Each structure stands twice: as C-alpha cells, then as structure tokens.
Amino acid sequence: MSWLRELRARVRALFRGGAMDRQRAEEMHYHLEEATRRNMDRGMPAEEARRQALLSFGGIENVKEMCRDERGTRLLEDLMQDLRFGLRQLRRNPGFTAVAALTLALGIGANTAIFSVINSVLLLPLPYSGPERLVQIREIDSKGASHDASPADFVDWRNLSRSFEGMTAIWGMSINLTGGEYPEQVLAMTVTSDFYRVFRAQPARGRAFLEQEYDAPFWPRPDRPNAHAIILSHGLWQRRFGGDPGLIGKALTIDGRQVTVVGIMPADFRFDEVPGLGTAECWIPGEWDENAYPAVRQFIVVGRLRAGVARSQAQSEMNVIAGLLGKKRPKENAGWGASLVPLQEIIVGPVRHELLVLFGAVAFVLLIACANIANLLLTRAVARQREVAVRAALGAGKLRLMRQLLTETIVLSISAGALGLMLARMGIAGLIALAPADLPRLAEISLDSRAFMFTLLISLAAGLACGAAPALRVSKAELANALKEGLTTSMGKRRRWLHDTLAVAQIALALMLLVGSGLMVRTFIRLQSVELGFNPKNVLTAAVPAFRRGRSSAEAVAVYQRLMDLVRTIPGVLHAGMGVIPLRGGGSNLFFPDGQGEGIRCETDAPSPDYFRALSARLIAGRLFTDQDGRDVQAVAIVNRTAAQAMWPGQTAIGKRLAYDTDRWKVTIVGVIEDIRMSNLESSPKPRVYVPLAQSKSTFPGTMVVQTKGDPLELVGALRQALKAVDGETPLGRVATMEELLSRLLAPRRFIAALISSFSILAFVLATVGIYGLLSYTTSTRTHEFGIRIAFGARAVDVLQLVFRQGLALVILGELLGLVGALALNQVMTTLVWGVTTTDPITYLAAIGAWALLALFACYIPARRATRADPLVALRCE
Amino acid sequence: MPRQQDLLQGTLDMLILRILSVEPMHGWGITQRVEQISGEVLQVQQGSLYPAMERLGRKGWVTSEWRTTENNRKARYYSLTKAGRKQLESQAKNWTRLSAAVNRVMQEA
Fold it and tell me: CA-based diameter of chain B, in Å?
C-alpha cells in the first residue's frame, strides 16, 4: 500500500514540518563543511574554499524551498502560512481592518438577514408532512379571475377525481365561546372528513373526528354549524382552559349549543398561513352534499396529490371534471374551470416579489461595500508594492503572491462574515418586529444552517471580489521598477482606471437604490396623505356578534340598541355607534336610483345614529340619522359622495328615492356623507348606501366604533362589562383601535419602504466614504504635482478645479449609468409603488441632486487639502 | 575534464538507491560517490539531491538516522528500506532494458 505509506508521510510532514526543516538545514550545513574541507584539501585558501562550496551548492534557501515542495504538503503549508501572514497583516493595520471588516460586515449582515427571511418564507417547505404534494384547488371564471370554491363543486370534485389521496374543504368563521367569566369570540375552521388525512396531522390528545361526526351537516346555513364535536388548538387550550388535561370529553357552549371537546392538536401544528382563513383556534367537522351553495365560492379546498401523480396530470383531470360540472350546473358553472396551485405558492406567492426586490437591494449594498474594500485594497497594494517586489525577488512566484493577497482578503471577509452573522441576528429580531403581522410564516423566520452556508458563501465571494483587483495588479506589477524607484509617487492614468471604474459603479448602484427607496417613500407619503374620511384618533373598534341560532334579527338589533345606550353613559366615551369598521370591508347590494334603470352595485351598511359622529365623518349635505329614524316612520338613507355622484351626477341627492334590488324596498336620501375608506387606501372609494339600523331589513353590522376622550384601550374593560350586562352570551371580539387597524394596513409598505430606505442610506454612506477615500488618496499622491504647480504660480482655485474635475467626472458618469440602470429596472417597482409612476421625475431628480451635493462635499475636503500643498515640501520629497 | 552532465530526475533517484544499496550514506557522501564512480562525468547538484532525498523518504524507499562519522561529526545517514530495495530492482531492470535498446538503435540504425 504505497499510497498509504505516502499519505502517512505527508501527514507527518504536515505536523512536523518545522523539525524536518531544521534537520534538513543541519544536514546541508554538514554538506557545506565537507565541501569546504575538500576544497581546502585541494589547496584553496579557507575563504575561497568556502565561497566555492557555497557557489556549487546553489541558493541554500532555494534548496530548502525545493525540499519543502517535495514534501507534498505545500498547498496546506502555504495556506497556513498565508493565513498566519494575513492575520498578522490585519493586526498590524487595526484601523484599516476595523473599517474594512465593519463595512463588509454591514453588507454581509444585511444580506444574511434578508436571506433568512427569504429562506424561511419562500424556500423552506411548509411545516406539514409531504408539503410538496399539497395543492389548493381554485375556481377560474370565464374572465380568468381566480376564486375560492363552492361546497357543491368541492363534493363533485372529490367524487369524480382519482388524482388525490384526499381533498378537504375549509371555511373559517367566528364562533362565540360561552361559559367562563366572559364569553369569547374565536375563529373556527369547519373542515370536511379528509382534513386530517390531507394535512397528515393528528390531535396530540384525544382523538380525531369520527365519521358520523362529519355527518351532522351544515345545512341549511353554512355559518350556523350543527356540529357536536370540536377539536381545539394547543394555543386556545392553554389560553382559555389553562391546559386542563381533563378537558377532553367535556362540553363547551358554542353559539348556545353543547359541543364536546374530542381532541387537542399538537403545539407545533400551525394552520394560520392560508390566505383567507386567518388564525384558526379550533376545528369543527361538517360535510356537504352536491347541492350545497353552488354559487357561494368562499371555501378553501386543499387536496393532497397521490404519490406518483404529477400536478399536470391532476390538472388535466380537473379540467375534464370542470367541463362536466359546466354541463351539470350550467347556471353556476358554465365557463368555469378549476386550477391547481401548490399550497406553498398560495401562501408565499403574494410576497415573493417584494422579498426578492429587498434581496436585490441588499445585494447592491454588498456590492458597494465590496467596491469600497477593493478600492482600499488597491491603494494599499500600491503602498505595498515594495514589499511585494521584495517577496518576488526572494523567489515567490506570481501565483503564489496572488494567492497570498487573496488569502489575506478572504481572512478579512470571513471575519467580516462572522461579525455580519451577529449583526444579522440582531437584524432579524428587528425585521420580525417591523414586519407586517400578516407576512406569511413570520414565526418561522430564523437563522438556520442554510443561512449559515449562505453567509459563508457570500463572505468568500465578497473576499474574492474585493481581492481580485489588487491580486491581478500584482500579476502585472513591474516589480523591478517598484524596487528601483523605492517610493511610487503619483498614479498614472492607466493605473487609475480600475479605481475609477469601481467608484463609478458605486455611484451608479447607490443612485439606483436611492431612486428605488425614493419611490417607496413617495408611495408611503402619498398613502398617508390619502383622505380617510374619518378620524382614527381615539377610536376603539370591536366585534359584537349578537346574532345566533334561535335569535331573531329584531332581538339582535334590540341588543345593539341597549348596548349603545349603556356605552354612551360610560365616562370617557364621547360617541358610540354600531356599524361596519372602516378599512375592514363589508357586503354589497344592487340599488336602483329612483327605482328604475340599471342597478348600481353599492356597499351597504346599517349603522346606529352615532356611528358617523364616532368616526368624525364629514356630512356634505342633509342630515345624519337620529333616534327618530325608527321602524314606523319614513324609510331613509344616507349615501356617500361617490354614490351620490354615480346616481345623480350634477344634482343634489337629497330627497331622491332609491330601491333595493331584492324587494324594491324604497328609501329616501336624507344625507350625503364624505367617502370613508372602507377597504384599503389604494383603490378609490366605492359607492355606499347607509340605512338606519332601526329600519334595516337584511343588512346588520356586527361591529361597533367608540370614540373616547383618552386612550381608548383603557375602556375595554368597561365595554366588556356593559356588553355582559346587556347580553351575557355575546362576546366582545377583535378589539382594536382604529389607529392600530390603519397601521396594520400600512405595515407591508412601511416594511419595504423602511428596509429599502435603510439599505439605500447605508449604500449612500458607503459610496460617499468610498468616493471621499479615493479622492483623498489620489490627491495625496499628487501633492508633489500640486506643489510644483503652485510653485509655478497656480492659484488655489486652479488646484481646486483640478481635483473637482476628477471627482465630478466620476459622479456624472456614475449618475448617468445609475439613471440608465434605474430606468431599466423601473418595471420591478411597478407593483410596489402607488400614486407615483415608476419613472417619477421628482424622485429621480431628487436622487440625482442629493448625490451631486454629497459628491461635491466628498470632493471638497480633499480639494481643499490639495490647495495647501507646500511647494517646498513637495520639492524636498524628491 | 569531460563535460559534467545533469541527471534526469528518475535517473538520479535510481543512482541514489543504487549507492545506498551498498551501505547507508549521508548526502555529501552520495554526491562524492556518484562523481567518483562516474569518473566525474556525472555531478549531482545539491539543489537536486536534497529534494530527491525528501521525495524518496516520502515514498518510503529510504529512511534516515543521525550518526557520527569517522571524523566524529554528526551526519544524517540514509539507508534503503525493503520497499526501496524492490524499487531499485525494478528500476535497474528497466534501465538495463532501456539502455540496451537505445544502444542497439545507435549501433544498428
């Protein structure tokens, strides 16, 4: 086994290299002595004998090197040596090292943090077993728009398809949990029999639902479950029941019915990611039949593909089935298709673009940081030319020298990576705090092994990128000249192009980032200046789900009216009204102005009289509702500005008549109210019709708004007590201040705007420092030249101009390139901006102007210094 | 004096092994012995000898130990290992075949 023997020898050599070198040196020493002795024997004088011996031996150091080469541990030994040398170099220049490491660490840390988010949100599989086979099945209308599914279609899909191991229809809804000190509103998920098979999950305690438990149908109303059994989430079990192990088998009162707890899900079973479902805290069984609500497309259908069945196969099967259903139920299904979308895509798809844009932005920051370090290293390489030349003269090959320089920068970048990892840890905590609460998989974000690998890789890449330029320079360096000249004074034009290219690239990248963040900030400002139509200050919102099985709407309305009367008496309450909470959407109806023509679809609400006062909504014409607008007087309505303009353009709406589509119930308009933003800030307000709660026949709000004198959250307890006094069975749900809701709505954009802005500020600072450093350096190498110029009568202004010309050329070129880049990339921002175009001239001009100002400043200091060049000093340098 | 010839690497290894097959020897001794026996035609460059010793040691063909010379100096003596002896045999066989072949061509062509 000769290779084994050889390997052993190499390993020994690796650890005993020093001892082996010593032995070899001793041996050669002996050799030389013998040779000298022989020469003396031949009659040479002692001096000459030794000289001849040395001559015939050749360079001792060279021979030693060749022996080391032969040892076969060269590569590793060199690496160790380079590492030691690199560390020593870095220690010797603590200032340079600190600046460079910190610069790179900021770039790397930011990248690692954003990568962790992307990794956890976009890349990691969903936390279910076999997640890649989970698909959501959505219905596609004839225009190509995607909808949730109807229960009837779900039942037919399940019966007719062969591609799925299981398929389940899920519907989220609020239920009232009574018993305990206060009733509580919780989100429940009604699921069909395959749910636990599809998600491959089982309760940690108790059991799954039995077949017969699914048989209790939801009929006749989907929102009034008939279920007898319930499974709780770990969270709800802990929160409301203190983790009571005896809860299994006990009955809870849900919406006035007795329901038995049969199981509790494991703590790690999370099911709050699917858009449209919210964070469910319990599961209720229920099945459907093929006649159930064929037009109600509000159910989330998730299927698990059978092993070996490709998604495309399943899709073809579903296409056929959708065709069949179009014939079976032409009224609801003609022209409709079904589409399979991977569940992962459904969950993370909506945020992918935003996250990738962030990733791109943060990559720019790292590139700028690398350019900074590369320029620093380049200038240092000039200063180190002598050192490099000496090494080359002593026998170091060019490759060897390049490798050594690269090792040095990689040592630097890996240390920066370690520091960056720490920064990223802090950054991720900040990111999570800043991230919108509905960012999918937010809770899963962490630094995992993949993020570590990523950090290592980009650290290496950054090291190589920074080190490449100086290393290449070595390979071209005219070493003999470097030794001869001793001190290189000024940089030639040829040598400067690399510096200049890096600087121009920095400026261009930073400008692109600045434009991007400028657009985001402008968007954010535009959104914040949107006329809300209400004043969110000191307004509390809450759900009051008083409707339940066996209670008439008149009884529920009576509860609301008593509640409002009571709440009004609470000290600190200014106004309280039932009504749909702004920014949270609502239902709609067809209305016929003057009872004729084509109907106009309007959102509908039935607020109590003080609703508009609680929101400080502005009345444009007519009057608000009063307590006199009761059941037996004239039916009245208030419309918003958009509805008034849509129905009676150019006329006053007051006194006009309006009819509902269903029963042609006619109402008279008594007021026009300013548009209130009901769903989001981006889309223009929709027409909206308000009727008094007391007169409403089909529309009832389940929520209230309360305007308070001070902090609205202080009154939550009092409100809860008031509700208990009015109706002990109805919980106060989803308590939030109006300002919270507004902030939540803005959170995604705030998140991206804040991140891109901080990245671009970072980039800006780095690039400015880079330009400043470069100009300072080139100016300092031209001190001599400036001195001579001044000696020959150049004025300070002339010298200033010289430096400025160099700086401005860089800035202008960089800005031009950045402008081109930003324009080329403007499509990326299309979905991110609102209220400004992606080529918004103001943003572009501001970015260019800001850069120009900063660049001038960066030029000024070195230029100023140049004017003080002392001709005497400059000439003495020679 | 005839021109001194540099040795091909593989040849040098073989010569070293051959010389060590007689008795253990230090580096200086090896160069002297090669020069003597070859009638000063072959000269071993020190720059080749020591890297060669390193190489032969790595391959496990020679080992070394420090001993005292006849004039009471410490020197590093190399000796052939079993594997080295085998290597010498096969290299010598090769060499005989090769040189005979070259000779034939030179004479008969």
Answer: 55
